[in-house]
Design brief:
The complex is a heterodimer of chains A (88) and B (157). Chain A is mostly helical and 88 residues long. Chain A contains four helices and no strands. Chain A starts with 23 loop residues before the first helix and ends in a 12-residue tail after the last helix. Chain B folds into two domains: 104 residues, 2-Layer Sandwich (Alpha-Beta Plaits); 34 residues, no CATH class. The longest helix of chain B is centred in the N-terminal third of the chain and has 17 residues. The radius of gyration of chain B is 19 Å and the shape is globular. Classes of the chains: A mainly alpha (88), B alpha+beta (157). At the A-B interface, helix 1, helix 2 and helix 4 of A face strand 2, strand 3, strand 4 and helix 3 of B.
Chain lengths: 88, 157
Amino acid sequence: MASRDDIKFLSNPNIGKTQSKYCRFKKFGIKHIDYMDPDFLLQFVNAQGKILPRRITGNSLKYQKKVAVAIKRARHLALMPYVTDLYK
Amino acid sequence: MRNYEVTFIVDPVLSGDEIKKAAETYKDLLKDEECSIVAFDDLGLKQLAYSIKKRNSGVYHKIEFESPTGAIIPKLELSLRRDERIIRFLTVALDKYGVKYNADKRNGLIGKVEKKTKDDPKRKTLNSPAKQTPAPAPVEEPKAAEPTPTPAKAEEE
């Protein structure tokens, strides 16, 4: 049987805490988004290949626009699909 | 001087020499128009995400160049559009960050850390006694150590 010291909380205290969103481009100082790198851009699309909103990715407006342009360029060059299923 | 980057996909059905010749055509075209070529990249045969002109793969080429005025762009695009060997192309004007990014990439300063960070705990146990990657290691290590939930690509400013 576990000693009383181990039991500090009845439920996980981290439940219900929301992790604050941040813009990864600002945080890590990424200034240029390469459209030739579909593996990186994969993080900003959903399984259908649609661009995820800022609400979810947490990007700042400036970089969300750049991400959107990069994804559209990658799609034009057939590096990413326009529409698909089970992408990722 | 303005910086541009043109990426085009050459038909993979052509023979190796013909593909090379197609790429060289545009290199020469740019040189004739007083553009200085910064970099010429053969990115090799890649699978296309969707079929274009009944092709499922293509040979990607990228030319980064400097042009004094940018008057060459319409000419370049017209000839790319008329060329049967080219299945897709994209011309992009580069800003100062884009130029720097491409220069860093050529010098091997930009590596992919995504895979490494994902199996970070494994890597530490496996690679700590083993050899470290020689040159770009000091650049990449701090990025890899950061606890990123969705790891970003390392790009040093």
